[in-house]
User: Fold these one by one.
Assistant:
Number 1:
Amino acid sequence: MRTIDNAAIADAAATRFRSEYDYAVFEYRRSAKVLQALDRSGVRVSGRILDAGCGGGGTALSLAEESAFAVGLDLEARFAGSGTRLAAEKGIANAAFVQGDGAGLPFRDGAFDLVFSHSVIEHVTSAAAYLRECHRVLRPGGVLYLSTAPTLSLAGAHLPRLLVPVPVHILVGRRRAFALFRGLARRAPWMLQEPKEANTFIALAEQGKEKQDDVLQQVTVRVLDRWIRDSGFRLLHEDRQVTGFFRRWLPGALRRRMERTPWVQDVMIGHIQCVLEKA
């Protein structure tokens, strides 16, 4: 999937939480942007690829179209009725899905040329163990593409958004903000920007269930730097993207200074992507 179709991506995003299959379709359509990000980072998509946290499996299938073989792994078998169905529809035969733990990958040493990790490290039980396993299953010279966002940023918080975009998790703390959004999903879903098809809080509330907080690692710029230093990888490229609000409203010199300020940078930066090489 190389062609970016913003309208199709937006349509898929609006219904992505309707089912795991719908989420896989969203991932597949969005993957054109992911492939462009890989290109800009100098990552060559080829050989044997592991999507280490594949979710519904859509991105893994797009990676398979660009490589010899791709494996999608997830802790929960979310791909069972989604990625496999989408693979059959697209005629993609060089892909496989495996249920497994990123902290104990069920693959031999040096099995892959590229490990892809998009918005995964914040959800694992041990970031150190996850990076250690990604390092182990790469061949020497293999590359890990890692993307995440600071937990204090709106993107990294993984929370719904109010109609009036107030950063509740910064004002009252994550635990209280999470409880607030669970309550709004049950009693006042109209106060949230996303409809139930694009909001797991509302979708689960309508099923009589409560959303559980699956952000297990508090990502900051400094903590991520430390994880990388301790992982055995060599950093080839890093890109920190400041969110549009700060780009629009802060003068360039002030913004660049704030980007280097601890805590403040964790609010401003909405996306971090790293290219890491196994020596």
Number 2:
Amino acid sequence: MNNQSLEPHVVTVLVADDDERNLKLFDSLLQAEGYRTVLATDGLEALQRVAENPPSLILLDVMMPEMDGFEVAAHLKQDERTRTIPIIMVTALDDRASRLRALEAGAEDFLTKPVDRAELIVRVRNLLKLKEYSDFLANYNQMLEDQVRERTSQLASSYRETIFTMTRAAEYKDEETGAHVRRISFYTVEIASRLGLDAEFRDTIHYASPMHDVGKIGIPDHILGKPGSFTPEEWSIMKTHSALGAKLLAGATSPYLKMGEEIALSHHERWDGSGYPLGLTGEHIPYSARIMNICDQYDALRSKRPYKPALPHERALEIIAAGDGRTLPWHFDPAVLAAFVQCASSFNDIYAEHSD
């Protein structure tokens, strides 16, 4: 009983009723108004027809075998794919409880049998107009979301280019930072994952952490490249790279640069308050900087410097976990230290893969 001729602009209305006379009546009335009809004789068949080709509107009889109209309506409104299809419940029942139940099931409107032709057409037209407007808003909102997502992606790419430029500038000042900053990105994500931090935090720290020493751009070359130990005066100047880096990154709106600022300023702070530049303690130290601190310490122990040899993984792990007099376990956030110990083998793999 279906009209199979379909023009692209023709609206489809599904009619579900177990009475063949009613089906013929609705079919005739709706087609006379230019609508395409799809017919079903029970609730289960109605759900099948909707699944095959979702209509623009549904006329749904209440009293049907297998599954009544209330159940069909509730099922359709619980499904994300069919939730927005308007439903008109058609029933001989005229009591208040049945009408309330129809609305509770999700029906947008209802008609009482015998159905008046003019009332039927007006209600169908009104609901179809609302559906068209609702679809327009949904499509418009999706278009806006796509544009925002594209713009956000462009901004993220721009921020990452800025980060790359700044870290490359730092590499020109300190030749040892090239592979170091690459390893740091992966170290920090490894610990953040172990700590159960979300994907947004992991993405941000991956790109923010390489900026931790960007302040070294402002340190004189004769100090930065000195092969021996620093004098007290030189050490005082060297320690200013934290504040210099934070100042360089201050005022940015990018989440990468904002986290980069807090890491640059605080990655030499220690859990027990013995770090610099502010002597922060415990949770007063930004979380990102606490993660960065232990990653930076591990990589420094593993790397060869003019004043020290490179240490093997096992020794670096031992120093961080147990201490050696200069580096002590209470320098680190206990939770971050525990996460580091748990994923230390991954640090070793990262160091080997991204060696100088």
Number 3:
Amino acid sequence: MKIRGLLVASAVFTVLAGLLYWSDHRKPSAEAAKPDADAAPSILKLDEGSITKVELKKKDSPAILLTKNGTEWKITEPKPLAADQSTVSSMLSTLSSLNAERLVDEKNANLQRYGLDHPSLQLDVSEKDNKTQQLLLGDETPAGSAVYAALAGDPRVFTIAGYQKTSLDKSLNDLRDKRLLRVTPDKVSRLEISGKNGDIEFGRNKDEWQILKPKPMRADSYIVGELVNKLTEARMDLGSSDAAAKDSDPAFAKGTPLATVELTDESATQELQLRRNKDTYYAKSSMVEGAYKVDSALADAVNKKLDTFENKKLFDFGYSDPSKIEIHSGSKTYFLTRGGHDWWDNGKKMDEDSVRSLISNLRDLSAEKLVDSGFTTPEIEGTVAAQDGKRVEKVQISKSGSNYIAKREGDPNLYQLSANSVEGLQKSVEAIKRATPAKPGK
């Protein structure tokens, strides 16, 4: 009997343990199926890509109508204007997935209580299926950190965070495209400047800029690129009021012309005129109606002298590019060839540090200025092959008084060098030596 009782007790224990196991593993999935009571209530759930029209209505302001044309948004009311695509996209992102902080009233019968009878902001959102929804934003909550919100036709009243209202409450100036030139920097192929420093024209070949006027010469691609970026990033200063903006037109008309800039890409040429009236700078673009205040830094960037844009470096190769170097200086002549990380001269391995010093001095050779004459018999000649032989640069350097004059092969311009830079190069040539033979291993 005792054994039978023990077996029965064991069986009961096994069943109870199984039920407990099943219950413990069943509970989380059952709880997961329950809605989260603390989850933020959803006000709007829209497919952002299906939105075709948004109208913003605010007290004491003309309505703003945004319409989608293909993939681009435009302002059509109160007047046709280009829209800032980034600002519109950010607003739509907030609008299409708008969650409330909390639900404050299930069945509101008194919109006035929340300032929703005459909302401070109303957004009418239209989708591709012609379905329209109206979002109403009313008063701030007593604490001032949130705003009452509701959907037209929905009896519920919610609160949304203040930053959400800020994302939605946009003025005409907030939404308009404030760029003065509508071109992408890396698409610009030509830049022309007419100003107090004469006419300067730049042309672009892939990533390299050249000066075309007043005469062909190499340009500092980094400096020209910075100027192109400055021009394409130029924004209109719309002022704090419409009256201030209207004052810009007569101020521009009476201003002193500073420069006219033209940027050309694959589709068109865009023009920007810069003027100064007293201590204020104004610009007028071929891409937008009216004149606007601009930062003085834009005028400073445009009105640089020609020599600012000149490429004064004698060699254009990168530090790790050279594969062959031929150098003649006085009685020293080397024909250096790179093999892997090693440098060789007539089958003899050369000291790597001394060759690297020569390469560094060649790369650092930079003119003080460009000159028209002074080149005589060359004292130093250097030829550098880089990019697997695709780029070959040859430079000759002659003495001219206390300075030196350099000439690049295929380049009509002459470059004046300081004595210090050339003497540094000569010392690096003198310092080239053979590699120290490795000691035999034990």
